Amino acid sequence: MTDPTVAETTATAVGGLTAGFMLDGQTYKAGAEAGFTGLDFYVAGRCGVLGDVDADIVSAALVFWNPDTIRTQWEASADVMSRADAATLFAACLGTWAERNIRPDALDWSRLAALAAKVAETATIGGAPLFAGWRAMPVPSDPVGAALHHMNSLRELRMARHGGAVLAVGLDPADAVRHNSPGMAALYGWPEAELPEGTAERWAEAEMLTNRATAADYAALSAAEATEFAELAAAAVSG
Questions:
Q1: How far apart are CA 220 and CA 123, in angstroms?
Q2: Distance (Å, whole) CA 65 – CA 59
Q3: Which residues, 6 or more positions from 144, have their beta carbon under 8 angstroms from its beta carbon?
Q4: Per-residue model confidence as pLDDT tens digits over 64-119
Q5: pLDDT tens-digit profile of 145-157?
Q6: CA distances (Å), 182 to each of 12, 95, 124, 176, 177, in order?
Q7: 36 phi/psi in degrees, rounded to 5
Q8: Are 49 and 134 in contact, with CB atoms under 8 Å apart?
Q9: Neighbours of 27 (CB within 10 A)
Q10: Which of 38, 150, 197, 231 can bridge 116 by disulfide, Cβ–Cβ 3.0-4.6 Å?
């Protein structure tokens, strides 16, 4: 399997596997018990790895969110707990979600963890601050937890590559969200608006550039390892 193929083939798995805990009601119940009100926990938890920085730095890392929305949520979370503690709690929610939704016998989680870690450890952190932050978080000792930790790091890596690609082709982040996830635009803080002509073409070009950039990240894997990683990633999201 060539690098572009593994980048394309694993895109859904890498993007979707750990997204489950970010959408889970129990995650936000845990956040509420800690003093958060909702979206502020998502922003502080996911981006707490950046430290106690200004909200504009968080928006720069997230790319696709309305900066005003991020500032509101980031500042709302400031008095709940430190950014580092918010990230730690958010990561713990990933583990709790896995206990309820992931079958330990579904696949060789240790091997998936090892392959994902090999990519994460060798990938350049340039342009990927959230990836760098999550990569530096403590790795759980159990196989499922370790695999999900590294897969979440790779999710942040691909999202960073995608954000850079969208900007590189001249596509406005708000229009990117309106095109690809119209139902999420309001959550991201963007009002309804007519999409400019050529949006779909620019989106397709950005996807191509994202896969090209991600291919470089996966170059750490041999052809056999790339095939194995793709198979294990697919099994992880299906089972």
A1: 8
A2: 7
A3: 98, 102, 104, 109
A4: 999 999 999 999 999 999 999 999 999 999 999 999 999 999 999 999 999 999 99
A5: 999 999 999 999 9
A6: 18, 30, 31, 9, 6
A7: -80, 165
A8: yes
A9: 22
A10: 150
Total residues found in the chain within this entry: 239
3-class SS at 79?
A: coil
CA 167-20-75 angle, to 5 degrees, is 60
Of 181, 179, 182, residue with least CA distance to 198: 179
State the residue range of the domain holding 7: 3-238
What does the block give as tokens for 168? 């590189």
- Distance, in Å, from the CA atom of 109 to the CA atom of 115, rounded to the nearest integer, reads 10
Other C-beta atoms lying within 10 Å of the C-beta of residue 13 = 21
How far is Cα 68 from Cα 70, in angstroms, rounded to an integer?
Answer: 5
Sequence-distant contacts of 140-146: CB under 8 A, at least 24 apart: 140/95, 143/104, 143/109, 143/110, 143/113, 144/98, 144/102, 144/104, 144/109, 145/94, 145/95, 145/98, 146/109, 146/110, 146/113, 146/117
Structure tokens at 103: 């079958």
Structural domain count of the chain: 1
* Backbone Cα Rg of the chain: 17
- What is the distance between the alpha carbons of residues 128 and 123, in angstroms, rounded to a whole number? 10
Encode pLDDT of 22-59 as tens digits.
Answer: 999 999 999 999 999 999 999 999 999 999 999 999 99
Q: 4 pLDDT exceeds 60?
A: no
